[in-house]
Amino acid sequence: MKKAVLNKLVIFGVGLIGGSVALALKKAANSPRIIGIGRNADALKTALELGVIDGASNNVAEAIHDADLILIATPVAQTAAILAAIKPHLGPNTVITDAGSTKSDVLAYAQNVLGEKSNQFVGGHPIAGAEKSGVTAAMADLYINKNVVLTPSADSSPHAILLTKELWQACGANVSEMSATTHDSIFAAVSHLPHLLAFALVDDIASRPNAAQLFGFAASGFRDFTRIAGSSPEMWRDISLANKHALLNELNAYEAELLTLKTMLKNDDSAGLQALFERASVARNAWAHGQNNF
Amino acid sequence: MKKAVLNKLVIFGVGLIGGSVALALKKAANSPRIIGIGRNADALKTALELGVIDGASNNVAEAIHDADLILIATPVAQTAAILAAIKPHLGPNTVITDAGSTKSDVLAYAQNVLGEKSNQFVGGHPIAGAEKSGVTAAMADLYINKNVVLTPSADSSPHAILLTKELWQACGANVSEMSATTHDSIFAAVSHLPHLLAFALVDDIASRPNAAQLFGFAASGFRDFTRIAGSSPEMWRDISLANKHALLNELNAYEAELLTLKTMLKNDDSAGLQALFERASVARNAWAHGQNNF
What we know:
The structure is a homodimer.
Chain A (H helix, E strand, L loop, with lengths): L7 E5 L3 H12 L5 E5 L3 H9 L5 E3 L2 H5 L4 E4 L6 H8 L8 E4 L5 H11 L6 E6 L20 E5 L6 H13 L3 E4 L2 H27 L4 H6 L3 H6 L7 H10 L1 H23 L3 H19 L6
Parallel strand pairs in A: 1-2, 1-4, 2-3, 4-5, 5-6, 7-8
Antiparallel strand pairs in A: 6-7
Helix pairs in contact in A: 4-5, 7-11
């Protein structure tokens, strides 16, 4: 299939995620003209000054005119409103994608808001991040060898899928496709559940009368385990609620696993505990060393 | 109180923990003569060749003769047998300590095995470790500014407590004292529970038909959260069973926290979720930045 043409890219939300896409494209061949749009004028000014974007706008109609691709890289909570602002001005050949961490909710927004134009939309999720946020933290190499999952619907046009795929490939990412539902069940297990478990542990400990003493003896294992509990409360509130059905399934499966462990402990089941820990440590270390042999 | 005299130290198990004590003392003033003893002749030979110990022995009576202090730094499962081997040859002025991660079980071994000589015993737990194990991983600075908890019983002699405290202070550690029971309940919360939770998550995921797909999309948050699931299955089996009562209490408290989270999710309790995540992220980040303000 011949390459799709990307001459003009509009990014809603030029922060770490959107800004890193822009920087990556500027290093790639045939980099497009990149227009940033957002509610935070200071952030857009910084993005312009840093050379992350070629132009800034607060006028949706003007910004997306003649755009080949629109990337929504704001918090997911803003996606429906942005789609509604885009729709009246959306040209027939313009593709829309997003970078949210949950995909079924975003697909539903696209279908509800865009209606007959929802074939121009393809959801996406770059599996990359950093400790810091904002355009000053953006990096041209953020997506190199990282996974990006696209979640086209049955309606999504082949052109929309191709252009979105090539956007992320130009950033150095490994692009895969799956349904929004499959995406959300996978990420409930490997991302959303661990975040909830880490938040739960820290809240459990912080709420106790002897919290200071407990934290005083916490060490490096606790530090790594709870790192993700330092993440944005607003973002994780939104992700948790957007993906609540898959997440509740994961919590139920996890509670069953904890019940197994508790039963082994109560029964002094030394062999059972060792077998469970062994399976986990072998699997974890194989994964960490890149040997995904399942 | 004047300094206790440490002219001869005997270390059972010259691995990462015991070897790092030896190396630290060799850098300190008035370093004692250090004798290693253990079942693994090759490891002792390596320790001698590396200059970690001054002598090696496989004869308990000979090794501990005239020793001021004996440090048991083997896996905890060997402690009772080592205490039994020591007792017939134990001089009246020799102090015994250990470096195990659980303290009530070790105290019970000391009282049962040493009997009337248990006043010569003080349990200890250095809160330090490294990814690697064995004497070749030993480091002189492993304990600098790390916590070491001593768990003297009502029987422990003032001399035994002082000598053990000075041992760890000479290694650069911050030494505190508490009962074995208090120690075990603190570490159930901040160490043993997180380890079990991480093992449980990885085992839960690894046991599924689509495990390869799930691991394929796991990213840096999963990597940090599960690092401790790569730990030694044997060691964590022993710790879990040794501290099972405190650990079961922690698992019950954690399940109550998960139930709170599940109820919030089911009820779309956005404010409740945000408040819980906020408490956790504030507490975690304050702790990580050394502001333990509870």
